[in-house]
Amino acid sequence: MNVLNKIALVTGGGTGIGKAASMELAKRGAIVAVNYSRSQSEAEETVEMIQKAGGQAFAIQADVSKNSDVQDMIQAIVNTHGTVDILVNNASITRHIPMDDLEAATEDIWDELYAVNVKGMFFCARAVVPFMKKNRAGAIVNVGSIAGITGAGSSMPYAVSKSAV
Question: Is 36 considered catalytic here?
């Protein structure tokens, strides 16, 4: 897919895999919305790196686990840039809990991880699909984890949420 001048949203775009995706999309000519929930300084640093390399990017805050935040984020992007052409659903969280410590995997932890890692991806996809349908083009990439296949990783709730992805 040619991404030149396409509007790309990368959730969790300021750190790790999201940062790498943001940088690569910008390198290929996309205008990148670098989403963050709590990592504002990292998102702004990623934007600055993209801009110094000659690319276009901006940071945008939203907690993807909250549908209202997602709707507001997409509306802000569309108000400024007209559409969203590419969505990289990368935002994710974990809690490091030994797999055999079932008591530590509380309901709150399950709810928090599922809300960000699964529902957040759905909220973002649902919010951008109308624009992609209107444009008769678009791409959505959902970033998972090997933990979703192996069942191993930082915790059982994390592995289950990544399996859902």
Answer: no
